[in-house]
């Protein structure tokens, strides 16, 4: 075994939580190492997000949006083309973009003096991380602090065996070699709907099977209904309140058996491919947690208090902890955790973590939903503004959707913002900032916004809280 190396911080995992923790530690002058085995044993950093998640899915979402626009919208704008799908090139440009991003992390590690250690890391007692390298050789790293940032993996479903052939998870759905004639998506969450929309735009018949009686749990109910109507208009079919009981794959397709959650006859559906997207589970197996007395809960999550685990000197961030499994949540926790380790005041506002669905239209939200406020018994006011009344949206033929702002009835503090429409992922940040400063809806309503822009809808919705919307 190689001679032990001592670090201020050893981070296990090189995804958005891990690599940002490593970079911040380097910036603060800490001696830091990041242990990462790579996705599927590969060499690149970035974890699921950069390699087989957030980034490649956005590459395909953008490309498929352009393809759909060329087929359905260009002619209306006076642009006459006859688009032809080149799926091989579409996948190639996705891979090229991903490669550039992962190389960027390597550069940032070098810039900030982060030691990258390739291999699988596991805690081997207090202050020790044992790394099994690609060649099987073992190295022990000694650390004053250990940060667990191993992320998550797709959740399995009994009776549905993912083979990455006919039955795929989110990773396999990013690399299909043909456009399915029919695609069955199990799960109406963000991942399933984003990837389903990609293949729908490229020509597949897409059916979404969901256990609940609604799509996108956690989204404001009014937004979810509007969103489902939009996806239905685009050709996606939904079977809600349905339980998948089994899937049988053949060389040519998949037979999926489902039954109503409320009880009833079993139905068999046929599809070329099935995408299993019922969520993700924390990746906490094989980390040696027991060597320091850490026991994950029944779902595999590690309990933390300000990112501290029950073991001294051991911290956990990102998808292995409770809360939304989002890359930006992991990134913020990474910064707060490392700053705490460095003796600074690490802080994170868990009530102001935005969520986004990168479909067309996009959906974005932050803060409380109407359902949550009603359950709390908190009095609130709502302001709404449709994109159909926004001049830039109308000029761009992007009038679907609206902005809804929720504010405290007594203090006018913004409690939540819910957006569905064109590029709202780029706009929800305004309300994140407003909520960080505990702004009132009037603060947004009286802030000058550039004209003509879609962002004016944010202001008009805020005006609506007090009933003085001017443009609708």
Whole-Å distance between the termini?
A: 71 Å
CATH architecture annotation of the largest domain: 3-Layer(bba) Sandwich
Helical residue percent band? 25-40%
Mean pLDDT: 97
Please identify the oligomeric state. Answer: single chain
Structural class by helix and strand composition: alpha/beta
CATH superfamily of the largest domain: FAD/NAD(P)-binding domain
Largest sheet: 7 strands, mixed
Explain this structure.
The structure is a single chain. The protein has helices at residues 16-27, 47-52, 54-72, 87-111, 170-173, 190-201, 221-233, 327-341, 370-376, 391-395, 428-436, 441-445, 456-465; strands at residues 5-12, 32-36, 114-118, 120-123, 128-132, 138-148, 152-154, 167-168, 182-186, 205-209, 237-239, 242-249, 254-260, 267-271, 273-276, 280-282, 314-316, 355-357, 362-367, 380-386, 402-408, 414-421. The mean pLDDT is 97. It is an alpha/beta fold and 472 residues long. It is globular and about 65 Å long. The termini are far apart. Helix 1 (16-27) runs parallel beside helix 8 (327-341), helix 3 packs antiparallel against helix 4 (87-111) and helix 3 packs parallel to helix 6 (190-201). It has three domains: 5-153 and 281-350, FAD/NAD(P)-binding domain; 167-278, FAD/NAD(P)-binding domain (3-Layer(bba) Sandwich); 361-465, 2-Layer Sandwich (Enolase-like, domain 1).
């Amino acid at each position: 075994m190689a001679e032990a190396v001592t670090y201020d911080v050893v981070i296990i995992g090189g995804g958005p939580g891990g690599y940002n923790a490593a970079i911040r530690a380097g910036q603060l002058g800490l001696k830091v190492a990041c242990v990462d085995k790579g996705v599927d044993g590969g060499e690149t950093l970035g974890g699921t997000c950069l390699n087989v998640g957030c980034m490649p899915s956005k590459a395909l979402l953008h490309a498929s949006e352009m393809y759909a626009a060329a087929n359905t919208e260009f002619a209306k704008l006076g642009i006459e083309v006859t688009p032809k799908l080149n799926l091989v090139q579409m996948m190639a440009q996705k891979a090229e973009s991903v490669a550039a991003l992962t190389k960027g992390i390597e550069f940032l590690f070098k810039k900030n003096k982060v030691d990258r250690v390739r291999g699988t890391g596991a805690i081997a007692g207090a202050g020790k991380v044992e790394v099994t390298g690609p060649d099987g050789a073992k190295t022990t790293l000694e650390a004053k602090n250990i940060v667990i940032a191993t992320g998550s993996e797709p959740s399995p479903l009994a009776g549905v065996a993912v083979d990455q052939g006919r039955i795929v998870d989110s990773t396999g759905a990013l690399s299909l070699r043909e456009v399915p004639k029919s695609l069955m998506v199990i799960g109406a969450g963000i991942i399933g709907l984003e990837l389903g929309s990609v293949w729908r735009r490229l020509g597949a018949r897409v059916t979404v099977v969901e256990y609940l009686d609604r799509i996108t749990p956690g989204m404001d109910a009014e937004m979810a209904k509007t969103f489902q109507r939009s996806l239905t208009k685009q050709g996606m079919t939904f079977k809600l309140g349905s339980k998948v009981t089994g899937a049988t794959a053949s060389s040519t397709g998949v037979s999926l058996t489902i039954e109503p959650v409320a009880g009833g006859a079993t139905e068999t559906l046929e599809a070329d491919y099935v995408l299993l997207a019922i969520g993700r589970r924390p990746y906490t197996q094989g980390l040696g947690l027991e060597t320091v007395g850490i026991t994950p809960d029944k779902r595999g999550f590690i309990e933390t208090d300000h990112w501290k685990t029950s073991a001294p000197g051991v911290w956990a961030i990102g998808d292995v902890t409770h809360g939304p499994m989002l890359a930006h949540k992991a990134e913020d926790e990474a910064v707060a955790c490392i700053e705490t380790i460095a003796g600074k005041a690490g802080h994170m506002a868990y009530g102001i973590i935005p969520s986004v669905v990168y479909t067309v239209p996009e959906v974005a939200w932050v803060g409380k939903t109407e359902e949550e406020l009603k359950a709390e018994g908190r009095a609130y006011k709502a302001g709404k503004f449709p994109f159909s009344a926004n001049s830039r949206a109308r000029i761009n033929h992007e009038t679907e959707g609206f902005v809804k702002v929720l504010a405290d009835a007594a203090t006018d503090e913004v409690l939540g913002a819910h957006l569905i429409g064109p590029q709202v992922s780029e706009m929800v940040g305004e309300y994140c900032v407003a909520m960080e400063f505990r702004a009132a809806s009037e603060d947004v309503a009286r802030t000058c916004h550039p004209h003509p822009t879609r962002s004016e809808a944010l202001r008009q919705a805020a005006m609506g809280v007090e009933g003085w919307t001017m443009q609708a």
